[in-house]
Every structure is written in structure tokens, then in C-alpha cells.
Amino acid sequence: MLAEALTVAGLLTLGGVVILPRAVVCVGAGAVLGWPGILPSLLGSGLGATLGFLLARFVFGGVARRFVARRPKVALVLMALESEGWRVLGPLRLASPVPGPAINFACGISRMGYAEYLGTTLVCVVPQTVLFIQLGRTGSQAFASRSPWSLDGLVLAAGLVLTALALWRLGVAAKRQSARLLAEVEARRPALP
Prior knowledge:
193 residues; VTT_dom; TVP38/TMEM64 family membrane protein; transmembrane; cell membrane
């Protein structure tokens, strides 16, 4: 069990810097470890988010700022992160098509404080982690029973449908909130002479 837990934590730490589907790792942790998979999943997610943030802030900040300077829409997102902080980061962490490493790097080059960043990140990944662990756990039990019509199989199917609906709804809400915040930031941006 220790080797599996360390593997989960390691993969999620790496996933804070390179694109690695967090959902897949957490579902796998649920299938292999069950509920105890929550701890290494949260630990790895926190370490990965910290690593991405610190690399952006102290190692790759200059390169990232030059990249942002050439892309006005990306600059608006950065301005929104700086002016709204957790209000923008929270929806991005809950349900976003933006990969985690991109969010980590954007926050790292912003003026957002580390405590606000990490606190928001950890709070907003808990619901996803619990959900993904449960899906993996239930799926593992359903496959072990070898009957798709078992209670575990039906719970898994219902969980997958409800997860898809919840993620879709969260994505719609996050996009709406992000668009509103970006519009507010754009309205406050000084006009160029």
C-alpha cells in the first residue's frame, strides 16, 4: 500500500508541472487504495501546485511574462487573477478546461500571494478528489462483482452520469464567472493613448 500511495503522490506532484490527467490518477488511487487514497492524492496535488507556482515565480518568470506580454487575452486572465485572486482561481480549480500546470504557472507569475493560492487550491480540489476516489473505489468493486447490474455497478453508472452533469454545470458556471470577471478587468484597464 505504501508504494501505491507514494506513486499516486509522485504522479500528482509531477502533474503540477506537466500535463497529467489528475482525474485519471485519482480514480486509479480510488480503485487501488480505496478511501485511504485521498491523503496521497491531496498531498501530491498540493506539492504539485506548489512546485508549479514556485517554478513560475522564481525560475521561469521572465520567460512567462514575455509570453503573456505578446498575448492580450492571456494578459487579461493574469490581470483578473491579480485583481480578484481566489474568486478567479476557485472556479478554475473546481472545473476548468485549463490544465492545472497552466493555472499553476499563471498564478506563479501573478502577484497573488502563496497562502491565498495554496489555500484556494487545496479547498477546491477536495470535492473533486473525494468524487474521483469514490468513482475509482466503486468501479473497482463493480468490476470485482463481475455483474454490471450489481448495486456497485448501478452506483458506478449513476456516479458517472452525475459526475458528468456536475462537471458540465460547474464548467458553465466557471466560464460565466470568468467572462464576467474578465469583462470587469477589461473595463478597468486604462486606455492606451
